[in-house]
Amino acid sequence: xxxxxxxxxxxxxxxxxxxxxxxxxxxxxxxxxxxxxxxxxxxxxxxxxxxxxxxxxxxxxxxxxxxxxxxxxxxxxxxxxxxxxxxxxxxxxxxxxxxxxxxxxxxxxxxxxxxxxxxxxxxxxxxxxxxxxxxxxxxxxxxxxxxxxxxxxxxxxx
Length: 158
Hints:
The chain has 158 residues and is an alpha/beta fold. The protein has 5 helices and 5 strands; from the N terminus they run H-E-E-H-E-H-E-H-E-H. Helix 3 (107-115) links the parallel strand 3 and strand 4 (120-125). It is globular.
């Protein structure tokens, strides 16, 4: 029997980003599947979320389209983002927690993140980096002192 611990255990960052990807698979959005996880200072998961329509609405109640009139022809006025849902689904106030997300949060999610006292965001994709709402998001997060760092999950490098 070995007295040495296993050397190839994954880090908390890797573990939580993998879980964020797994929960993103619950999204019914045909174009973007996002997932988020909130963990406290002791690395205990306190919330999970994925992007989708509000609870108790039929999956066919609104369109999943990306192009057209925002109100009547696209999903954007109706979808709850993964970060929002992780906060809504938290089993305790996420103040002082960190948020793992597969996609860098938009400005609306940034406001929700700041208002709930989340202090760190660990994200994987930043594919919309230069779009206005993501520029605004970084301004909000920076002004509130929320740390942001990017990691690419080892599972996604393969």
